[in-house]
Amino acid sequence: MSFLEKDYREIITKAVCGKGKKFTEATHTISPSHKPTSILGCWVINHLYNAKKKSKDTVEVNGSYDINIWYSYNDNTKTEVVTERVTYRDEVPLAVKDEHSLNDDYDVICKVLQQPNCLECNISKKGHKINVEVEREFLVQIIGETRIFVRVDPEGYASIDDEDDWHLKVTDDELSDVNPNILSSRSKD
């Protein structure tokens, strides 16, 4: 790229320098105190998690949640709720990466797209344990310092004061042509 230095300014700023998403299905085996006859309900609660950058290509999400299973035993004559705390570690690969970030001092933002949720709960074939299938999904973003270049308006701020420029607003038709996923579609190319 050829440009005159006087026409551009270099700005150091914080920006999203990496992004990734991961969906996980996991099966947990729970051992109740009695041999279950049937499953009456299952729910996942008390989800806690934290995320940290593990390598230049991945973010590690560590967390835990409680699995509660309401089941009957003794030929459906009695019921009980068993609760078990489960821990997990998900490595989320970064699909979008800015190789030009200035240092290795990153902030990690982790958002839960799908809270841990029970997909299926059934009694194991041997009949003494309960298998629970749980889904979860995370979106992670790495925030770091990066460098951008902006062109300086040769007219300065004088052109902003010209009221004739303000009537050039973006119409709804023009706005509907904007692709909001332009960055993610470019990363797939």
Task: Provide a descriptive summary of the structure in words.
There is one protein chain. By secondary structure, the chain is mainly β. About 5% of the residues lie in helices and about 60% in strands. It has two helices and seven strands; from the N terminus they run βββββββαα. The chain has helices at about 170-175, 180-189, and strands spanning about 10-30, 35-55, 60-75, 80-95, 95, 105-125, 130-150. A four-stranded antiparallel β-sheet has the order 5-1-7-6, with no helix packed on it. Strand 3 and strand 4 (about 80-95) form a beta hairpin. The protein is elongated, with a radius of gyration of 26 Å. It starts with 7 loop residues before the first strand and ends with a helix. About 15% of the residues are buried.
Strand arrangement in the largest pleated sheet: 5-1-7-6
Class from helix and strand fractions: mainly beta
State the helical fraction: under 10%
Q: Runs with pLDDT <50, length 5+?
A: none
The helix count comes to 2
Short summary:
The chain is mainly beta and 189 residues long.
List the helices and strands and how they pair.
Blueprint: E1 8-30, E2 36-53, E3 58-73, E4 78-93, E5 96-97, E6 107-123, E7 130-151, H1 172-176, H2 182-188
Antiparallel strand pairs: 1-5, 1-7, 2-3, 3-4, 6-7
For this entry, give a set of tags.
7 strands, 189 residues, mainly beta, single chain, 4-stranded antiparallel beta sheet
